[in-house]
Amino acid sequence: MTDLEIRKEDRHVRLDRWAALLERDPCQTIGLLSPSWAGGDQRGPLIPSAIDVAWEDPILRVMGLKSRARGDVKAFFGLSDAELDRIVSGSWRVPMRPAWQVAARIRNVGDPRVERLVLASVTAIILVFVAVVEWLR
Fold this sequence. Notes:
Blueprint: H1 8-23, E1 29-31, H2 50-55, H3 58-63, H4 70-77, H5 81-88, E2 96-98, H6 99-110, H7 113-136
Antiparallel strand pairs: 1-2
Helix pairs in contact: 1-6, 5-6
């Protein structure tokens, strides 16, 4: 195991801690960064990002979070570019989100089974609805 790889259990604990920090104040506004492919850390200076919330936690820093840099955050939480972008990135149209939405994104990245189950359930409901409509014709 290299320095950049972390155990699955450690990743889960770290992501849960990050989500819990955001859930402490679910209505807090979290600033979103530009996606990594669009330049990375550009955002407004007055609104903290999800990375800032993680950095301000002394427990995560003691566990090994080295800095606010995108690469350090990726390595510490064991995230890919796409996963980190899903958590901390926005667009020019959506420059911020409530903390509870960012926490939900973190939990979905940590355990995508729940999200897939919801998607499968909605798909099944739509298929049943279409079948009933076709049957009633």
